[in-house]
Amino acid sequence: MEAGLLQRPHRPTALAAATLSSSTGAAGNGVPLPPSLPPPPRRVPAAAAPAAAAAPPSASKTTASATAPLSTPHIPGGERGPQLLSLDPYLAPESHPWFRRIDVKEDRLVHRRYMAMYDRSVQFTSTTGQSHTVQYDVVGNPHLDFRFSVAFPFHPATATSPAQVTLVREYAQGPNALMFTLPCGGFDPRRHTSLRHCAIAEMREEAMLVGGEVVDLLPEDHPGQSELKWSRNKFKPFLFINPRFDPSGCASRDEEELTIEVVRVTIPELYGIILGGQMMLPSVFATFLALEALKARKLLAC
């Protein structure tokens, strides 16, 4: 580890949510983590899903992409590539009673700066042919083709140190807090040739790391994981095994990225950060896939 560049954070048990003061002057000197988390709910077998309703006579060309058949879910695999799992019938999109009965009628741009907001009109048609329309606020980044990449930089265990992951901690304007994330950034068609290329560039710019084996954590034909329910943005995560420090010794960052702190954490510390609610959701998703891939490669204990 290069001295002075990668700093280890406190143990997860001592970490606190670094909530900052709001613009209204409310106090924000740090909110302690909850003392414990509730146990996960027990899984109850789902009842048989209703049979798929027949589609309307003519399907609109603007049918919402969320209603399109999804790719078969997969678990990132080892040397033989992804392992595919079959969907149970009640999990398939076609089993939903509103499948192919949701049409996007209009996306009207109402605000655009770094992000854009759209007033989306969506028509829902019942099995009896009756329809109603609902207005939604939808956000996304058209400058970056509504796509971004997430990099998971993994440093295997050595004789003197446990396995570690490089994270960045930076200011998150939504929660107005200092949050942990993996290196990530938007796809710029002027700079990047692919989402993989984007992930390589962002890992260098944000975490000052280059090289290593690159593993796609979603199938090549996967459209990308949705960022949020109300976002048009999608992302793809990539695992980087054993990247090395950037010999140039500096990172190229935008003005809003000046708060970035680069840290290296162990796997137990990584779990502690996630369980403490201090990591942004795209990074949590990427972490889950990366850890499964590392276990499949026997680089981590199951």
From TrEMBL:
Gene3D superfamilies: Nucleoside Triphosphate Pyrophosphohydrolase. Residues 1-86 are annotated as: Disordered. Residues 13-26, 44-73 have a biased composition (Low complexity). It comes from the Eukaryota. Residues 32-43 have a biased composition (Pro residues). This is Nudix hydrolase domain-containing protein.
